[in-house]
Amino acid sequence: MTSNFNKVCRLRKSLYGLKQSPRAWFERFTKVVKGYGFVQCQSDHTLFVKHFPEGKLAIIIVYVDDIILTGDHEEKIDLLKKLLTKEFEIKDLGNLKYFLGMEIARSKKGIAVSQRKYVLDLLNETGMLGCKPTETPMDTTVKLEESDGSAPVDKGRYQRLVGKLIYLSHTRPDIGFSVSVVSQFMNNPTEKHMTAVIRILRYLKMTPGKGLFFQRTTKKEIEIFSDADWAGSVTDRRSTSGYCSFVWGNLVTWRSKKQSVVARSSAEAEFRAMAQGICEGIWLNRLLEELRVPLKHPMVLYCDNQAAISIAKNPVHHDRTKHVEIDRHFIKEKIEEGVFKVSYTPTNCQTADILTKALARVNFEDLTEKLGMINIYNAA
């Protein structure tokens, strides 16, 4: 043993459980599917597409060892299953109904995606199944801050709870803002922070089966709503950006995030949010191009701040925009190229408002409906 201190081991076969296993598996899987004529998308490296001469396509989406096969060429998909069976030990689970904690339901009207079982398991684990439900995930009168004077709580439990809520927010944009806020206090959580987390769980008790609904539509446009809550954080007075993107009328991506710098005006905060929304739109457009579904019209970005829209459209240099020059030129360039057009929307119609601040029940319920969220388990 002592004579081998200066030697290392070479990994000849990747074993399950090692750090190298996921990378080795994905490289092997990628090599195999590329051999079958699939192309790895540059916009999302876990997405593989194969186009056929008759205009049909087959798509593979992979997450570690969980795989979704879809497309409109059933014969080729069946053939692909047989080919993958020869290379790997796989199990065909049939039509997609459950994937990574997400439940998928189909009807003639569209597809619903929810995490009802995940919510109920979370409530059961935390002893909240019998709690009193609430109608909104966050109290509009409460502003959380790092040093609030309340007693500290179990850091590990707080982090586990927030981590599970972050995963749940993949299908629940209605809790996107509240989860974004509580995740800012992972290092030193206090009783007030835990109370905010418990409030989210009480809201989930009210709506365990709520999820996204992707309906059939003839609309062929990308619309993005961007908004910002100027100086909303009482800790450092940074603003919160929020955007949500709709592809063909259905919500596909959204984000709520505190901005990295302090904005000196509401127009500047909105401007930074607009830049983030445009970046998301460019990525979605690139993804559609790889699927060979080109857009016929420019993407539309909706903003409720007239000053920010004016700065975006006006090529004249403003002293007030010196500190956001990069974002200003970026947005101006995309507008001039015809990739985007920026339109004004009233604040009461700003869908992204739900991702930037806590709202009262009436406004909150109105915006969750605009996001396309439904509860398929509701008998009503």
UniProtKB/TrEMBL annotation:
Domain of life: Eukaryota
Pfam families cross-referenced by the UniProt entry: RVT_2
Domain Reverse transcriptase Ty1/copia-type: 5-138
Name this protein carries in UniProt: Reverse transcriptase Ty1/copia-type domain-containing protein
Organism: Vitis vinifera (Grape)
